[in-house]
Design a protein that fits this description.
alpha/beta; 5 helices; flat
């Protein structure tokens, strides 16, 4: 719609002490804690899985070596999508508005809308981690007990979802240490950080930063704390929608990926016939995942 003199009638007369809601603080960007950030100059980006050789078979006396094979695996495409929002103000409203703060607040509000759009779209990759309607290049959801590999599958979640606890995180770290490549060979994969919604902040603090086991009368050591098993600690994403979901991000490259195609851009112009002022903010990006070994997690019990 068009913002006219009727939208903010109080702005046409002096005496307003404050425009409440025009200057709320915003959380700093959180997606950089959850994704590897990349730039793009194309309409889409593609990651292609490399499938290598498995274990070497034994050679009998005088026998011949076995020749393995290597091939291309699944392809994951990141398509750049454009998002934008704007507003327009009548010529009379601009002339009669007595509060410059309100004018500035409109532009800030549009910028906040784009910023939260980026965060929300990115967080939804995690929010839909077990949703079978949102699959990766391997054809299954981000968190799954049956990610396909040559000759079998591997899991990056427990068979039965569990709530965040010391035992659950320890089991996740153990599972991460057993991750295999597409040929079924063990790879070196380590946990880096715990990613949680705001509702699990206090639970994560007790689990990660307590030198002793939480919720026990004994003074047994917290093995994760002593071993620095989660070296980057925990981070909170305020855009997660499941209060019980938790994720361990690993050191695997080409996992959770964000591509910025066109940075946030603000433009304004005026219509000749009406004199209305128009303002818009746009951004273009893609977000998703390629290698599911980048995560281990659960959506809670």
């Amino acid at each position: 719609g068009v913002i006219g003199t009727g939208n903010f009638p109080k702005a046409l007369w002096p005496g307003v002490e404050s425009w409440v809601g025009a200057a709320y603080n915003q959380y700093p960007p959180e997606l950089k804690q959850c994704f590897d950030l990349n730039k793009s100059q194309k309409a889409y980006e593609e990651d292609v899985l490399f499938s290598g050789m498995g274990l070497a078979p034994q050679i009998s006396d005088g026998g011949s070596v076995t020749y393995g094979s290597m091939k291309q695996g699944y392809v994951n495409r990141y398509t750049m999508l454009k998002y934008g929002i704007g507003y327009q103000v009548t010529e009379d409203e601009i002339a009669d508005n007595l509060y410059p703060k309100l004018v500035v607040a409109r532009s800030r509000d549009a910028g906040n809308s784009i910023a939260q759009t980026i965060e929300t779209v990115s967080a939804n990759v995690y929010n839909r981690a077990t949703n079978g309607s949102y699959v990766g290049g391997d054809g299954v959801s981000l968190l799954n007990t049956a990610h396909p590999i040559v000759g079998g599958t591997f899991a990056n979640k427990p068979v039965n979802d569990v709530e965040l606890s010391e035992v659950a995180v320890e089991d996740g770290i153990i599972a991460i240490g057993g991750y295999v490549n597409d040929a079924g060979l063990i790879i070196s994969c380590k946990a880096r950080k715990l990613i949680i919604p705001r509702q699990l902040t206090f639970t994560a603090e007790r689990i990660i930063k307590n030198p002793f086991q939480p919720d026990t009368a004994e003074r047994n050591i917290n093995a994760m704390y002593q071993l620095s098993s989660i070296p980057e600690g925990y981070v909170v994403n305020h855009y997660f929608t499941d209060p019980d979901a938790w994720f361990i991000k690993t050191d695997i490259a080409d996992g959770m990926k964000f591509f910025m195609r066109q940075d946030v851009s603000a433009r304004n112009d005026n219509e000749f016939d009406t004199g209305n002022a128009k303002y818009k903010v746009t951004v273009r990006f893609a977000v998703g995942w390629t290698d599911p070994r980048t995560l281990y997690g659960s959506i809670g019990a």
